[in-house]
Design goal:
The chain is α/β, with parallel strands linked by helices and 320 residues long. The chain has ten helices and 14 strands. It folds into two domains: 199 residues, NAD(P)-binding Rossmann-like Domain (Rossmann fold, 3-Layer(aba) Sandwich); 114 residues, UDP-galactose 4-epimerase, domain 1 (Alpha-Beta Complex). The longest helix has 22 residues. It is globular and about 55 Å long. Keywords: Carbohydrate metabolism, Isomerase, NAD.
Length: 320
Amino acid sequence: MTWLVTGGAGYIGAHVVRAFAKVGLDCVVLDDLSSGHRGFVPEGTPFVQGSITDTDLVADTLARHGVVGVVHLAAFKYAGVSVQRPTHTYTQNVTGTVSLLDAMASQGVDAIVYSSSAAVFGTPDTDLVTEQTPTTPQSPYGESKLVGEWLLRDQATAVGLRHTSLRYFNVVGSGTPEIWDTSPHNLFPLVFDALLDGRTPIIKGDDYPTPDGTCVRDYIHVADLADAHVAAAQTLAAGGSLEPAYNLGSGDGMSVREIMTAVARVTGIDFEPVVEDRRPGDPARIVASGELAARDLGWRMTYSVDEMVRTAWEARSAHR
């Protein structure tokens, strides 16, 4: 029983592949390596280089490897950059998902776990986001992920697709020193790269309506996130039913400045971050309840913030 992991050579996808292996399930990875790395794919895992927008390639991959379900992580994931590149974002995230769903339908593959985002909520008018919170995305990225959820819903009506979407925000840490977050936009690698280069880390905006003026987010460890994807896949494979979407949240969240303090504490490098202008498309606060995911997927956070920083720092430092 093989699962296709789109974007499986990326930071999150490579952890998902390892989480599948941990429970004895086979994977095949499809990735165009636009942001992923061939070396992140474990030796012995089949790898296909290509884009999800290539419907024929996706269909051929599904057929050749006897795929029974898909974990769909491949996407252009940067909310701030999506404001400057909306058409690129929609092509990768919406057109790409349409292509994937067409390929799945052509090969009779009827199960998908979709990597969505808390960005679908925009800046919610509530202290704690639940699955019933209205979706009001504020960036092309958030909009594209919400459209992806709609596509799954409509395809379920049309052809009986079995699906669920996992919504989450800042993914951090590392489950193995072999994989680290190489994004040029995410907070942890930006801070670590600055420290390794002898520069001062930057906070993008400290005038948000939050207790210390900096953005508040859920930060979840990538290994916990990967386990949630596998739990969802196993439930669908066993014929179980899942909710259309789950929030993978901490229930409390942390501010960017609090993360900076934790980085200084764990690394032993004392610094005072430089404050610059806000980054376009960033909501002030998104903190979600994970209660529904705990009920159905056994979701829980097993890493403290210091462990998140430590595992991420160790992995990044090993590849400086």
